[in-house]
Design brief:
Blueprint lengths: L1 H9 L2 H4 L14 H9 L1 H9 L6 E2 H8 L3 H13 L3 E6 L2 E6 L2 H13 L8 H12 L1 E3 L2 E3 H13 L3 E3 L16 E2 L5 E3 L3 H8 L3 H7 L7 E4 L6 E4 H13 L3 E3 L6 E3 L1 H11 L11
Helix pairs in contact: 4-5, 5-6
Amino acid sequence: MKDWRCKLGTMTKSEASPSIATPDRYGDADIASVAALIADPARGRILMALADGRALPASVLAAEAGISAQSASGHLKKLLVGNLLRVAATGRHRYYTLAGPDIASVLESLASIAEPYQITSLRQGTRAHALRRGRTCYDHIAGKLGVALTEGLLDTGAIVRTDGNSGAGRAGTDPLSGGTPDGRYELGPQASEVFGDIGIDIELVQQNRGRRALIRACVDWTEQRHHIAGALGAEICRTLVAAEWVTRRPRERSVSLTPRGQQALAIRLNLPDAGSSDSR
């Protein structure tokens, strides 16, 4: 007995307790814990409010979720601990963002299979329609407008598909929503000319993209077709908004073409009125 106790005193933690996990004993990813974080209605609304890549303060997120500031604080803390959000302090305010584009992709994928909220007012119906017409998915343009932009870039030779398919249609091996494997698209023979006409220096985008893929395709959850993501998708969104060809709705993810943008992209990409406001 004495010898056994002496030996226990010198044993490592993993030797003394075989049930304690070590790196080579980890199993599958614990998706249930992440799903539980997203499953709460208030947290779901908070995450969707941030799915366009914006950084928002807690007060705005509380309004988006329809909850009190105190409740929002508790939900935000859980989302931070669960690594779904990041926070940065600016002056007296703390601004929250999604932890990365992968989180936005997960949200878009869930949106493709989720039942929509019951619309109980004209304002809700208009907002839902606007999101499907055009929206931002993290930092790139999605919805009908995002798909139309992709088709226009393909038609003009700015980008080409490399998987044997044509157009922006979803490939048979693609998920119903979310990111696809890299390499489905690459720059086309007219890339410099077409993107230059839009105001994008494609060589500069390539230089500054870091480790991020230049072009990624996402299957749009409302259109079931591809829209362009990656460093190029982010630059397209930034450029069109800066040129006031695309406008954002205050405090919402939806975007739409301005009359100026509709005219400019019709010339450069042969783009129809996809994503334009119904009143224009």
